[in-house]
Amino acid sequence: MLTRLLSQAFDQYVFTRVDQILNLAGTQDAGYSKTAAEVSAALDKLLVLARALKAQQPEMTGLVMDFEAWAALESGQAAEIAYRQGLRDSSQVRREFMTCLQQYD
What we know:
Layout lengths: L1 H27 L1 H23 L7 H44 L2
Helix pairs in contact: 1-2, 1-3, 2-3
């Protein structure tokens, strides 16, 4: 029970922290902001095209919207995976750093 509760709390922490990091990146990282703007512009163009072709391809608008949702989910999951790996890596880097320091004491 406690393990599950701690796991849920940690999952919520990771989700919240990744969201915070991505929000900061959107305002403080020029490269990320540029890419996000380009993705948004491309999606807008796709939606305009889908609406223009609605008579010939009625499923296209839904497909574009589905693609946007799945791409956003994939991006969020990738960020979460990278964050979790970073946490694991930081522990390993710290151990290696401490071992290195102990060699010079």
